[in-house]
């Protein structure tokens, strides 16, 4: 699951640490291969409206044309197939990316998460103070929003907090003390968590947050405070510690930079999103902050809302290099 920002250009202000440059021509070999065993036909993908399915079938049959943004001599036509379901456990960005990347198949989802966080840390350390402030403002917007605004877009807003696993017992004790004084349980929990937990509102706290995969080895548990315009709605205390940090635009940009390839999120919106049929499927590009030396990979999202309106589920797309003529493709990226 993940959140999308309306303006992902904010993350372009990060300046990547400079790993050795690799020649595009030396590193990439495009072959037409049969990946049918790795894919699911669009007719069998659940949860799609007919208008969405028609567009996705067209992208598979006619292909999409990708051109290297700098080296105009390099272009590839891809046919896009669904890569199958992945668990909706909060790790889906990384699980789906692992399946979609193909050549990174030996890297598991947890390693992809670690490399994403490491890339963010390295790049944040090399950027200017002004750019760092812009990035941290975006983080606050996603995870510690101003609850006095935003209600024209959101019905529910979430505040993310990080609780050190070793402190959970003391937190419970403090909450019980407030309950014994006559304070409602959820209000007491809100008070203690806001006072003693770490808010996800800057670069260092984002690193702690995005490192959480929902495993017993995590240092922190995610606490989620949910609000409506009337006030506190509920507190998700994540008692079992299974909640993982959803991937967001910052994480996708870091993945793109780490692997030197563009990542396209293919969103399919239904009739409830108030888009016409011609625009119900669209491509959101995420470019690496540096040289592109590998072909792109693609992720699929059945959209549930616009621009940070909540968590969405990523699924892998398998990109089949094709000999289809570029003049006959369904879409040019």
Automatic annotation (TrEMBL):
PANTHER family found in the cross-reference section: OS01G0102500 PROTEIN (PTHR36068:SF1)
Protein name in the entry: Uncharacterized protein
Organism: Nepenthes gracilis
């Amino acid at each position: 699951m993940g959140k999308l920002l309306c303006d992902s250009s904010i993350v372009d202000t990060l300046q990547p640490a400079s790993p050795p440059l690799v020649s595009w021509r030396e590193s990439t070999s495009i072959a037409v291969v049969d990946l049918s065993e790795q894919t699911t036909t669009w007719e069998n993908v659940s949860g799609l409206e007919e208008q969405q399915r028609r567009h996705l079938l067209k992208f598979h049959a006619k292909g999409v044309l990708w051109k290297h943004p700098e080296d105009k001599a390099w272009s590839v036509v891809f046919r896009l197939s669904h890569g199958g379901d992945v668990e909706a456990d909060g790790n889906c960005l990384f699980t789906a990316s692992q399946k979609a990347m193909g050549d990174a198949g030996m890297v598991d989802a947890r390693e992809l998460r670690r490399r994403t966080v490491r890339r963010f840390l390295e790049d944040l350390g090399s950027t200017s103070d002004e750019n760092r402030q812009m990035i941290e403002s975006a983080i606050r917007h996603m995870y510690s929003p101003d609850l006095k605004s935003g209600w024209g877009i959101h019905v529910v807003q979430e505040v993310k907090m990080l609780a050190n696993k070793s402190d959970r017992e003391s937190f419970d004790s403090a909450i019980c003390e407030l309950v014994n004084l006559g304070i409602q349980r959820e209000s007491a929990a809100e008070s203690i968590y806001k006072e003693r937990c770490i808010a996800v509102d800057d670069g260092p706290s984002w690193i702690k947050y995005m490192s959480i995969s929902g495993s017993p080895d995590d240092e922190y548990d995610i606490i989620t405070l949910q609000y409506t315009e009337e006030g506190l709605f509920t507190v998700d205390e994540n008692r079992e510690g299974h909640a993982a940090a959803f991937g967001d635009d910052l994480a996708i940009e870091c993945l793109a930079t780490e692997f030197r390839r563009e990542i396209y999120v293919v969103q399919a919106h239904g009739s409830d999103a108030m888009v016409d049929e011609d625009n119900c499927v669209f491509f959101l590009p995420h470019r690496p902050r540096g040289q592109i030396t590998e072909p792109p990979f693609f992720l699929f999202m059945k959209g549930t809302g616009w621009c940070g309106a909540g968590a969405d589920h990523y699924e892998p797309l398998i990109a089949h290099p094709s000999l289809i003529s570029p003049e006959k493709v369904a879409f040019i990226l």
